[in-house]
Amino acid sequence: MSFLALDVECAATGRGHNDRAPCRVAVVDFDGGTLLDEMVAVPGMVSPLTPITGLTRDQIQRGRPYHDVVADVRALLGPHVTLVGQAPFVDIEWLGLQAGVDYRQAVDIAEHFRTWNVKYGNYDYYSLAMEVYALLGLRMTTLTKMLQSWDPVLCRL
Question: Regarding the domain with residue range 2-155, which homologous superfamily does it belong to in the CATH classification?
């Protein structure tokens, strides 16, 4: 069995909250090696969401077709792979991956760091940056937050 971290960034395709499409996909191995880091062309892009994705309109427009990038991701995966990430099920859904075919299981590290909020009777969830700081005392700079490929690297720490 192998462990891989997966992360997907999205650009806006409309004005609604859910009007998004993948614009960058990264896969990192257990040792932190980048196996894939690809821009995805987004037809009809309204905004690259640069403050979130760290990408410009030009970078995304020069990206590869979605189906080609997904095929490359699937070539790295298989039923022996455990995917690890911060809410990886969202990324899995964006790429249309299937449990038992494309991956064995997924581990959501956000679930392992959640804490019970007695006042409100629910769980509090934390950002990846907060989890890394709690574990390692490292502060993610604005630059590293914008570099999407850091997410899967930090997920494996």
Answer: Ribonuclease H-like superfamily/Ribonuclease H (3.30.420.10)
Rounded to whole angstroms, the Cα distance separating 56 from 76 reads 27
Per-residue H/E/C for the chain: CEEEEEEEEEEECCCCCCCEEEEEEEEEECCCCEEEEEEECCCCCCECCHHHHCCCHHHHHCCECHHHHHHHHHHHCCCCEEEEECCHHHHHHHHCCCECCCECEEEEHHHHHCEEECCCCEEECCCHHHHHHHHHCCCCCHHHHHCCCHHHHHHCC
Q: What is the pLDDT of residues 41-98, one digit of tens each?
A: 999 999 999 988 889 999 999 999 999 999 999 999 999 999 998 889 999 999 999 9
Contacts of 134 (CB under 8 A, 6+ apart): 113, 126
Check: CB of residue 12 under 8 Å from CB of residue 20: yes
Q: What is the β-pairing status of strands 122-124 and 115-117?
A: antiparallel
What are the domain boundaries of the chain?
Answer: 2-155
